[in-house]
TrEMBL record:
Recorded GO MF terms: methyltransferase activity
Name used for this protein in its record: Methyltransferase domain-containing protein
BP GO annotations: methylation
Origin organism lineage: Bacteria, Bacillati, Bacillota, Bacilli, Bacillales
CDD domains listed in its UniProt record: AdoMet_MTases (cd02440)
Pfam families: Methyltransf_31
Signal peptide bounds: none
InterPro entries, per database record: Methyltranfer_dom (IPR025714), SAM-dependent_MTases_sf (IPR029063)
Amino acid sequence: MSRPEHGTTLPAYKRLQKLDQMWNEFLSEVPTEERWLLLQTVYTSATRRALLSTLPLTDGGYVADLGCGYGALVFDLASLYPVHIWGLDRNHEAIDACRSFEALARQAGALHPSSVLEFTVTDVTTFELPYPMDVICARFVLQHLREPEKAVVQAARNLRTGGILCLIDVDDGLSLAYPPDPPALSTVKTKLIELQFTQGGDRTVGRKLASWVDQAGMDVVQTLVLPTSRYQSTPDKRTKHVLLAQWQARRKQLIESGIVDEVQFQKLMDQANLEETGPQFNIQTEIAIIARKA
């Protein structure tokens, strides 16, 4: 557990600015195969923070983030609110990085001085927390699980009566792009989705969230569709950068699963690097479900 250090406190907006600055610095310093996740953290901060004001966070409240990865949501919450937050993930490397980043963020004054953070390596379908939680969040994690319903049930068990569960995830059936991506980039996306499917994942998980919450005995109190649309008149280098970083990180898994061989992998990487991506109209959609434990 890291305890807060009291001293001069930056305003909330400056703490978030400091946090964003630190993510960019941290990105260049931390070697990891999951670099694409860190890139995504930097590039999606506005979308990630859009829902925070809907969560009933109180001073000293207990909050957990399931599948926290490198801690993007955890650190946003800890920057803004005086809460006690648990970040849970099965990835040892990610949890170690969270702990290192927390020490730096605390020293830089990027976190609320009364926030407390704990990071734990655990399976989000079987986890146990030391206290009943006021709020539990799971963002972009259920799409990767073979048995996501178990994570929802376990979250319900770890909430206090009246506690809130916030689930946010994708549904590719509600996303589109026109004109379509160039051939190699389109194939890279398709192969990554195929890999996710073979590992038990589901890119249409968004439409199923409310049903799982209901089956877990919770009351759905709010449903939200969070579309992000834009027209990109020039090449979208950031999205391409994240995609190809993810492709590189998944090289071994793609080849071992037989989705591509070594020659195909490198050929697609080379071709995708050369392709231009704009102009394009794009809609990416997230589904959010907010539920209360009866």
